[in-house]
Each structure stands twice: as structure tokens, then as C-alpha cells.
Specification:
heterodimer, A: mainly alpha, 11 helices, B: 2 domains, 10 strands, about 25% strand, globular
């Protein structure tokens, strides 16, 4: 029996990694809502986030906030590039969802291998954003990176909510989610919305990558596990529902961290996939129900 | 009169099935034209092909300029606006948001208010329902919203695909009455209708489609009885 006094501490680390899964899950939802495409290159954005930030920080010597901003813009551009080069040609030919999943998965593998060639196989990490000793609250220790992860994630959720609710582009993206054809009949350029959704998802993935890297490490091959966790978060939340994906991410993060303590690190993914299976069996619509 | 909308030899297919065969028609400025035909005649396909929602061959031009193929947003920008079959409203969004999206290409707050006021004058009920979720409206109100949303784009020609579908006769009359009013104000309208007598009451000319082909052009004034109309359908 593990020592239960660790439980709050474990819960905190679960919440932190859950926020990251949630951001990746939201990335899945944003693209899916705009286009009906499930983009499996989502993990590549997270990997690129950590790797590019590392290079910008260490080769160009820019301060961390600027390096982070440069990274997010660069990864968003990469997202648009994937949309242009991989997704758009298939989309124009009305490819099925399975073709899209395979094509984006292929893009993920290509990016992964390119990262291996360019950056090598050594894991890299980023410094903590705020280099101060962690805060102690009784038995719980809260690191500043935890606060950064949770704070930035919540801020992004609020900003995204406002974007979809208040801005014209956000409303147009929602309109595409409900009825793409009717959206195009209002003068909305649906394929431009597709590019925008890739930029937005890629930026979210990059933020996730930059936030999580200081607490662990990044390497060319971290993308796929993150993509799978984000995908599970999105399904558990009710695919297509950004807020649900975030809740799903936190739930998944908590489950994983509890499983690590109870059964050992090797069973972390067993726990994650069990959550997925339980939801698929009992509540296939997810926490919030299906979007459509 | 010179035509504003000209369709030349428009063909479209769904997979290997030809749904539309070399349709040519034209609409003059200020005209109210009906497109009639039984279920499956290709009326909706014709509208979708004109807007570029489906792949097609042939040419559609509006006010002398050819409309690009498969670019519905460009059609809307040029003033060719379709109220699609089944209304196509954004059900989970509010009435206000639906109307806003109708004016998606407009970036002028004053003009937006002017257009919206005009829509409210035509459909006062939309003003009352502004904050309501569009999907919770009655069928008639949803159709009003669909027409109102199309008017927010300030169309130079309005196409409507069976706006009477599934509506009570009284509501249908109300909506068709509004269309007649808009047409009197100078807006050219193309109305797709399965119920021919309804459309012939309002329109100055009608095209009859059957199995993807244009089979007749009808002058409603010459149709005085149902029998004559039936003859067109059966011939």
C-alpha cells in the first residue's frame, strides 16, 4: 500500500500534465470542428514546441519569453504548411476520414524523423520559467512551473472561449463546425478557415510543448505519446468540445499519475487506455456529450 | 431587358449519375422567376451548381462577369445569394449570430445596422427572438431567419430552394408575400418550388425541369387551369 500522504502531491502533478493533454485535445477539436478532420500530426506540434524553443534559446541566445513567442509563431506556420502540403490536396479530392488520419500520421512520422536528423537523438530540456524554490503548503510542494502550466492553460481556455464567442473569425469557425456548406453560402471561405484552424491547433500544441518541457524533457519521439493522450482527452470530453477535452485531459492526467504511484510507471498507458475504453463502453459521447 | 443571371449549358453529376444536363436559362433585372419540377428533377442540384457548391461544367455569369467554379463565397461576394434547401441555419447559434454571419463579408457597423433594421421590418418576429437559439424557433421562424440571413448579405439576386417545405400554408403565404415585396423593390428572385400553383401566382416566368433537363418555359398568365399545368408535367 503506497503512502497516502503523497496523494495531494501526485494529484498536482496529474493536473499539470492533464492541462497539457487538455491543450492538445483542444487542438484536435479545433481542427475537427472546422473541417471534420482528425489531425494526427498534433503530437508533432508539441514536439516542435519543445525542440524549437530549445534551439532558439541555446543557439540564438534569446530570452525565454521571446524564444517562446518565436516558437509559437514558427509552429503555427508549420501547421499551415502541413495543411497546405498534406491536407489541402486530399481535402480538395474529398478524401475520407481514414485517408486523412493516415496522411496526417505520415506527416507526423516525417516530421519526427526530420527532427531526429536535424537535432539528433539526445533528449533536451528547457529551464524552469521562474527559477525560485517551490512553494511549500503543509505536505504539498508547488513548483512555479506548475503554476505556469495551470495559469497559462486556464488563460488560453478563457481566450479561446472569447475568440469563439465574440470574434467574427471565431463565429465563422463555429458556423463551419455546424454546417460547412451553409457557412460557405454566407461568404465564408471554408478552406481559409481550415488553414486558420491548423494554425490555431499548432500554436496550442507549441504552447503545450514549451510549458511541459521544463518539467520533463523533449526529444524527437515525444510527439506520438502526447498525441495519443490528447486524442483520448478529446474523446473522453466528447469529440469536438474544447472545454470537454480540457476536462478529459485533467481526468486523464490524474488517472495516469495515480496509476504510476499505485502500479508503477510501466502501467501509466494501461491506465490511460483503460479510461478510454471505459468511456467508449459506458459513455461514448464523452463527458459533455458529442458535439454534433 | 438584358439578363443579370445567365446560365449556359450547365451540367453536373453525382459520381457517375448525370444530375443536370446542359441547362441554359436567364433571369432579367427585376424578374421573379420560378423553377418548377417534380421531386428529383434536379432543381436543388441546379441551385447548388449555380452557387458552385458542386462540381459542374458550363458557365454561370452574373451581370456580365463569369462566376468562378466551386467558390460559393465569391458568388456571395458578387451578390448571388442562396437560401438553401432545408434552410441551413446554424441551429446551436443564436438568431443574432445567424444574422451576423449572413453579413460575414461586411465590415461596416452602420451598414450592418441598416440591413438588420430592414430585415426586422420585413420579419418583426426575428427582432423578438434575437437572443434565442435558432434551433428552438418554429419551422416558419427558421425559414424567416434563413431569408433574413440571406438579406443581410445584401443580395443583388436571391435564389431560394423550396422555402415552403414543411411549412403551414399560412406561414408559406407570409414568406412568399415578403418575397413579392422584395421583388417589387427591384430584387431579382429565383424561386425553386415543387408546388407549382404556389409559385405561378407570384412569378412572371417559370422554367420546368424534369430528370435533369429543362423541358419547358412557361408563361404563368397562359396557365389558367390545373389541367394545363398537368399537361406540362406529363408531356
Amino acid at each position: 500500500m503506497p503512502d497516502l500522504s503523497y496523494l495531494p502531491q501526485i494529484a498536482l502533478s496529474g493536473i499539470a500534465v492533464g492541462c497539457i493533454y487538455g491543450l492538445i485535445g483542444i487542438g484536435f477539436c479545433v481542427i475537427y470542428n472546422a473541417s471534420g478532420i482528425v489531425n494526427f500530426a498534433q503530437g508533432a506540434f508539441v514536439m516542435m514546441g519543445g525542440m524549437i524553443a530549445y534551439s532558439v534559446l541555446n543557439t540564438l541566445g534569446l530570452p525565454l519569453p521571446i524564444a517562446a513567442a518565436v516558437t509559437i509563431v514558427a509552429v503555427a506556420a508549420a501547421g499551415v504548411a502541413i495543411e497546405r502540403v498534406v491536407v489541402r490536396p486530399l481535402w480538395d479530392r474529398k478524401a475520407t476520414m481514414f485517408v486523412m488520419i493516415l496522411a496526417t500520421l505520415a506527416a507526423q512520422i516525417v516530421i519526427e524523423r526530420l527532427a531526429l536528423i536535424v537535432a539528433g537523438d539526445q533528449p533536451k530540456t528547457l529551464p524552469q520559467f521562474t527559477d525560485l524554490p517551490p512553494i511549500r503548503l503543509g505536505v504539498v510542494v508547488i513548483s512555479y512551473q506548475f503554476l505556469w502550466i495551470v495559469g497559462v492553460s486556464l488563460l488560453l481556455i478563457v481566450l479561446l472561449g472569447q475568440f469563439f464567442k465574440r470574434t467574427k473569425a471565431g463565429k465563422a469557425m463555429r458556423a463551419c463546425a455546424f454546417n460547412r456548406e451553409a457557412a460557405s453560402l454566407q461568404g465564408i471561405n471554408v478552406s481559409r478557415m481550415l488553414a486558420l484552424s491548423f494554425a490555431l491547433s499548432a500554436a496550442l500544441g507549441a504552447v503545450a510543448g514549451v510549458l511541459i518541457t521544463p518539467t520533463q524533457y523533449t526529444a524527437f519521439n515525444v510527439g506520438v505519446p502526447f498525441a495519443i493522450s490528447g486524442f483520448i482527452a478529446a474523446i473522453v470530453g466528447g469529440f469536438g468540445r474544447p472545454l470537454g477535452a480540457f476536462m478529459g485531459g485533467i481526468m486523464l492526467g490524474l488517472t495516469q499519475s495515480m496509476a504510476i504511484v499505485a502500479f508503477g510507471a510501466g502501467l501509466k498507458n494501461v491506465a490511460a487506455l483503460s479510461v478510454l475504453l471505459i468511456f467508449l463502453f459506458i459513455r461514448p459521447g464523452g463527458i459533455l456529450g458529442e458535439a454534433k | 431587358m438584358t439578363p443579370v443571371l445567365e446560365v449556359r449549358q450547365l451540367s453536373a453529376r453525382y459520381g457517375r449519375v448525370e444530375a443536370l444536363h446542359e441547362i441554359s436559362l436567364s433571369v432579367a433585372d427585376g424578374e421573379f422567376v420560378a423553377v418548377l419540377g417534380p421531386n428529383g428533377a434536379g432543381k436543388s442540384t441546379l441551385m447548388r451548381a449555380i452557387m458552385g457548391l458542386i462540381a459542374n461544367s458550363g458557365a454561370v455569369s452574373f451581370r456580365g462577369a463569369v462566376l468562378p467554379r466551386q467558390s460559393p463565397d465569391t458568388c456571395v461576394a458578387r451578390g448571388v445569394v442562396l437560401v438553401p434547401e432545408g434552410r441551413g441555419i446554424f441551429a446551436p447559434m443564436t438568431v443574432a449570430e445567424n444574422l451576423e454571419l449572413g453579413a460575414y463579408l461586411l465590415n461596416d457597423a452602420d451598414e450592418f445596422e441598416r440591413r438588420r433594421t430592414r430585415v426586422f421590418d420585413l420579419f418583426p418576429r426575428l427582432r423578438e427572438r434575437l437572443g434565442q437559439i435558432a434551433g428552438s424557433l418554429s419551422g416558419g421562424e427558421q425559414q424567416m431567419l434563413a431569408v433574413g440571413r440571406a438579406l443581410m448579405a445584401n443580395p443583388k439576386i436571391l435564389l431560394l430552394d423550396e422555402p415552403s417545405l414543411g411549412l403551414a400554408p399560412k406561414v408559406t403565404d407570409e414568406i412568399l408575400g415578403t418575397l413579392a415585396l422584395l421583388n417589387k423593390g427591384g430584387l431579382p428572385i429565383v424561386l425553386v418550388e415543387q408546388k407549382a400553383p404556389l409559385a405561378l401566382r407570384l412569378t412572371s416566368r417559370a422554367y420546368l425541369l424534369s430528370v435533369g433537363r429543362l423541358v419547358a418555359e412557361i408563361d404563368p398568365r397562359t396557365i389558367t387551369s390545373h389541367d394545363e399545368l398537368a399537361r406540362y408535367y406529363l408531356s
